[in-house]
């Protein structure tokens, strides 16, 4: 590495400025969430179907939903109030290393435990076939614990997907098709043409609704600050008709960088808790399948510095960057990362970028390898903590004119040098 260090030693790192991006802050306070969830479930179309003594499965996936445990517990308590017996089912494709214990650990990290929920939390990779998809006549499978329930309540966040566009993206339909399908279901869908994934999600989801006792579900839409913008209870019929409208709403409420392009985008941490792809391409602009999706910022080079603790070594998405650090590389666990690639077939997500010994050298390498930069002496660089929290971020001094011209941006500091420690790291 000494040779590389010598080559980039004199590359200047621009001064940075702290800014705040302002978005719509409308949200439901945490203290009100349980009541809202209860009210949404307590409709004849959903809660009216729950009978005393029934066993009701509640789905919980791997996404980091704000106040996840609060809302999950409210669903549990509602089922109990109807005299039924609730239990939570780990509902995620290949996450957690595609193991039952790994998926339980993900839920524990979100505070979803038997003690906190007051009901069993079950996890298995075993699935059972429940029927065939209507169009392609393919076998559709769901989690064995969910298949044993008298009724199933879905719980998921609705938002733009990271690799396809369609009427149903991330939400309750996908929870049925892939979350309840576990590794087997996720693999079945991902191993077909990426161009029809949006069709398969709907086709498999409808098959689950037609062949399983789906009672309905709770759909969450979050604002740009990961706060709960909307909680909506949907019956099976409403999932079909209303979820596309919630998807449209999520496009309006999600955060985005208020710049069209930059030379270098620096992401402090990636992880499955931030996005299924480690970093949300709707922000980073790095899509798994750019021929099917677009959006986000146009960055010539992307640098990823670290992994979140919550991702448990799963570094999916690292392959979408050009540069990373030895710190991240040392945290990466292949046994956690590779099962996701085998399942979704996007092997390029697992590729290892150029590894630099510290943060300073990672930035210098990216900065010196931007031949398309308009002004090599005034590089445009953006640094974000992760793609889930982009309200307060850093931009290089050269981007100040753009920031000052945007009424939705506040300038929070004067230009300053980045503070590297004695090892050349930012944290």
Overview of this protein structure:
This protein has 427 residues and is α/β, with parallel strands linked by helices. It has 2 domains: 179 residues, no CATH class; 224 residues, LarA, N-terminal domain (Rossmann fold), CATH 3.40.50.11440. It contains 15 helices and 16 strands. An 8-stranded mixed sheet has the order 13-12-11-10-14-15-1-16. The protein is globular. The two termini are 21 Å apart. The mean pLDDT is 94.
Rg (C-alpha, Å): 22 Å
- Number of discrete domains: 2
Which residue ranges are poorly predicted, with pLDDT under 50 across at least 5 consecutive positions?
Answer: none
Name of the CATH homologous superfamily of the largest domain: LarA, N-terminal domain
- Class per helix and strand makeup: alpha/beta
Largest sheet, described in full? 8 strands, mixed
H/I helix tally = 15
Helix content: 25-40%
General shape: globular
Which class of the largest domain in CATH terms? Alpha Beta
| N-C termini distance | 21 Å
> In what range is the share of β-strand residues?
15-25%
State the CATH topology of the largest domain.
Rossmann fold
Give average pLDDT, whole number. Answer: 94
Q: Kindly report the oligomeric state of this protein.
A: single chain
Going by CATH, the architecture of the largest domain would be 3-Layer(aba) Sandwich
Would you count the extended β strands for me?
16
Q: Taking strands numbered 1, 2, ... along the chain, how are they ordered across the largest sheet?
A: 13-12-11-10-14-15-1-16
């Amino acid at each position: 590495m000494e040779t590389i260090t010598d080559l980039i030693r004199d590359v200047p790192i621009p001064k940075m400025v702290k800014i705040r991006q302002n978005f719509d802050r409308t949200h439901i306070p945490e203290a009100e969430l349980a009541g809202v969830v209860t009210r949404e479930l307590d409709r004849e179309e959903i809660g009216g179907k729950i009978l005393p003594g029934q066993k009701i499965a509640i789905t919980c996936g791997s996404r980091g939903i704000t106040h996840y445990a609060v809302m999950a517990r409210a669903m549990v308590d509602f089922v109990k109030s109807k005299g039924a017996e609730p239990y939570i089912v780990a509902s995620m494709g290949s996450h957690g290393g595609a193991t039952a214990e790994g998926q339980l650990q993900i839920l524990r990290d979100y505070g979803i435990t038997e003690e906190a929920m007051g009901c069993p939390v079950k996890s298995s990779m075993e699935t059972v076939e429940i029927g065939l998809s209507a169009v392609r006549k393919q076998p559709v499978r769901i989690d064995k614990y969910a298949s044993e329930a008298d009724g199933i309540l879905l719980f998921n966040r609705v938002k733009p997907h990271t690799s396809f566009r369609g009427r149903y993206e991330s939400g309750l339909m996908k929870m049925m098709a892939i979350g309840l399908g576990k590794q087997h279901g996720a693999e079945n869908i991902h191993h077909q043409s990426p161009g029809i994934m949006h069709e398969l999600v709907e086709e498999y989801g409808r098959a689950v609704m037609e062949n399983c006792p789906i009672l309905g579900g709770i759909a969450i839409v979050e604002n740009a600050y990961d706060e709960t913008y909307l909680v909506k209870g949907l019956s099976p019929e409403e999932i079909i008709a209303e979820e596309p409208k919630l998807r449209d709403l999520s496009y309006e409420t999600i955060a985005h960088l208020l710049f069209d392009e930059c030379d270098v985008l620096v992401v402090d941490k990636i992880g499955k808790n931030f996005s299924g792809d480690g970093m949300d391409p709707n922000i980073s602009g790095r899509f798994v399948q750019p021929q099917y999706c677009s959006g986000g910022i146009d960055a010539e080079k992307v640098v990823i510095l670290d992994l979140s603790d919550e991702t448990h070594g799963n570094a999916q998405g690292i392959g979408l960057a050009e540069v990373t650090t030895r710190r991240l590389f040392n945290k990466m666990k292949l046994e956690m990362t590779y099962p996701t690639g085998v399942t979704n077939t996007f092997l390029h997500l697992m590729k290892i970028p150029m590894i630099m010994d510290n943060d300073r050298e990672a930035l210098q390498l990216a900065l010196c390898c931007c031949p398309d930069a308009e002004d090599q002496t005034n590089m445009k660089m953006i640094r974000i903590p992760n793609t889930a929290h982009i309200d307060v971020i850093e931009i290089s001094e050269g981007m100040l004119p753009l920031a000052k011209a945007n009424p939705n941006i506040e300038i929070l500091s004067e230009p300053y040098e980045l503070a590297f420690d004695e090892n050349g790291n930012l944290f």
